[in-house]
Protein backbone atom coordinates (compact mmCIF):
# COMPACT_ATOMS: atom_id res chain seq x y z
CA UNK A 1 0.00 0.00 0.00
CA UNK A 2 1.28 3.42 -0.90
CA UNK A 3 1.76 5.99 1.80
CA UNK A 4 -0.20 9.23 1.38
CA UNK A 5 2.77 11.25 0.05
CA UNK A 6 3.49 8.66 -2.66
CA UNK A 7 -0.19 8.42 -3.52
CA UNK A 8 -0.46 12.21 -3.79
CA UNK A 9 2.64 12.29 -6.03
CA UNK A 10 1.24 9.52 -8.23
CA UNK A 11 -2.07 11.37 -8.63
CA UNK A 12 -0.23 14.60 -9.45
CA UNK A 13 1.98 12.93 -12.06
CA UNK A 14 -0.96 11.09 -13.60
CA UNK A 15 -2.83 14.39 -13.97
CA UNK A 16 0.20 16.01 -15.58
CA UNK A 17 0.54 13.17 -18.10
CA UNK A 18 -3.18 13.30 -18.83
CA UNK A 19 -3.08 17.06 -19.40
CA UNK A 20 -0.07 16.67 -21.68
CA UNK A 21 -1.86 13.98 -23.70
CA UNK A 22 -4.89 16.24 -24.12
CA UNK A 23 -2.77 19.23 -25.13
CA UNK A 24 -0.88 17.23 -27.76
CA UNK A 25 -3.83 15.10 -28.92
CA UNK A 26 -3.88 16.63 -32.43
CA UNK A 27 -0.21 15.75 -32.92
CA UNK A 28 -0.62 12.10 -31.89
CA UNK A 29 -1.07 9.45 -34.58
CA UNK A 30 -4.64 8.17 -34.80
CA UNK A 31 -3.64 4.68 -33.59
CA UNK A 32 -2.09 6.23 -30.46
CA UNK A 33 -5.22 8.33 -29.89
CA UNK A 34 -7.38 5.20 -30.17
CA UNK A 35 -5.14 3.24 -27.80
CA UNK A 36 -5.17 6.02 -25.18
CA UNK A 37 -8.94 6.38 -25.54
CA UNK A 38 -9.55 2.65 -25.09
CA UNK A 39 -7.21 2.48 -22.09
CA UNK A 40 -9.05 5.42 -20.51
CA UNK A 41 -12.35 3.58 -20.94
CA UNK A 42 -10.95 0.41 -19.38
CA UNK A 43 -9.44 2.32 -16.44
CA UNK A 44 -12.66 4.25 -15.94
CA UNK A 45 -14.71 1.06 -15.90
CA UNK A 46 -12.48 -0.41 -13.18
CA UNK A 47 -13.65 2.29 -10.78
CA UNK A 48 -17.25 2.74 -11.93
CA UNK A 49 -18.85 0.67 -14.67
CA UNK A 50 -20.61 3.38 -16.68
CA UNK A 51 -21.93 2.65 -20.14
CA UNK A 52 -21.91 6.36 -20.98
CA UNK A 53 -18.19 6.76 -20.20
CA UNK A 54 -17.10 6.17 -23.81
CA UNK A 55 -19.57 8.83 -24.97
CA UNK A 56 -18.47 11.25 -22.23
CA UNK A 57 -14.80 10.85 -23.17
CA UNK A 58 -15.56 11.33 -26.87
CA UNK A 59 -17.53 14.52 -26.12
CA UNK A 60 -14.78 15.81 -23.84
CA UNK A 61 -12.14 15.31 -26.53
CA UNK A 62 -14.42 16.80 -29.18
CA UNK A 63 -15.02 19.88 -27.00
CA UNK A 64 -11.33 20.32 -26.09
CA UNK A 65 -9.56 19.26 -29.25
CA UNK A 66 -8.99 22.15 -31.65
CA UNK A 67 -9.15 19.95 -34.73
CA UNK A 68 -12.61 18.63 -33.82
CA UNK A 69 -14.21 21.71 -32.28
CA UNK A 70 -17.20 23.19 -34.06
CA UNK A 71 -16.32 26.18 -36.20
Feature tags:
mainly alpha
Outline the structure in words:
- The protein is mainly alpha-helical.
- It has one domain.
- It is 70% helix and 0% strand.
- It contains 3 helices and no strands.
- Helix 2 packs across helix 3.
- The protein starts with a helix and ends in a 7-residue tail after the last helix.
- The model has no long low-confidence stretch (mean pLDDT 87).
**Helix fraction bin:** over 70%
| Low-confidence segments | none
> How many β-strands, per DSSP?
0
Order of helices and strands: HHH
Please state the CA-atom Rg, rounded to the nearest Å. Answer: 14 Å
Q: Given the C-alpha coordinates, what overall shape results?
A: globular
Please identify the structural class as seen in this structure: mainly alpha
Assembly state of the chains shown: single chain
Distance between the termini: 48 Å
Task: Show the helix and strand layout.
Blueprint lengths: L3 H20 L6 H18 L5 H12 L7
Helix pairs in contact: 2-3
Provide a quick synopsis of the model.
By secondary structure, the protein is mainly alpha-helical.
Amino acid sequence: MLDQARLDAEIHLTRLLGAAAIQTWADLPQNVQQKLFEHAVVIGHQKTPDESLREQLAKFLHDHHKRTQHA
